[in-house]
């Protein structure tokens, strides 16, 4: 993709991300409220506290649902990241790191066998 289109899509994505900054902040605050509600709900012993923290979690969930346009802003930020990577000619890898023990074993084995060749 040539630089003109990267700049064009980057400007559009930046405008969309900036226009959705309010809902993104609201979604983050709603997520924090939900987290607090669940955390303290699981830690409370009395029924009254459980009811209160469940209510707090439900209010946070309703607030998060009302901030659905924030997902468009998050997608725009992801597009900006991809454009930045493409501009610097870096590969865009979403899932670069694997925790497969066999893959890690093969990497370590290759390193060890290369070191043994030089000894």
TrEMBL record:
Keyword Transmembrane helix attributed: yes
Listed transmembrane segments: 51-84
Key words, A-Z: Membrane, Transmembrane, Transmembrane helix
Source organism, top-level taxon: Bacteria
Name under which the protein is recorded: ABC transporter permease
Annotated organism of origin: Planococcus shixiaomingii
């Amino acid at each position: 993709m040539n630089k003109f289109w990267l700049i064009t899509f980057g400007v559009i994505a930046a405008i969309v991300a900036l226009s959705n900054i309010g809902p993104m902040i609201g979604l983050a605050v709603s997520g924090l409220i939900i987290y607090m509600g669940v955390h303290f709900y699981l830690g409370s012993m009395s029924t009254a506290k459980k009811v209160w923290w469940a209510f707090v979690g439900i209010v946070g969930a309703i607030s998060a649902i009302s901030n659905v346009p924030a997902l468009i802003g998050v997608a725009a930020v992801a597009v900006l990241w991809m454009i930045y990577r493409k501009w610097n000619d870096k590969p865009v890898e979403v899932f670069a790191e694997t925790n497969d023990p066999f893959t890690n074993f093969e990497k370590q084995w290759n390193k060890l066998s290369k070191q043994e060749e030089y000894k």
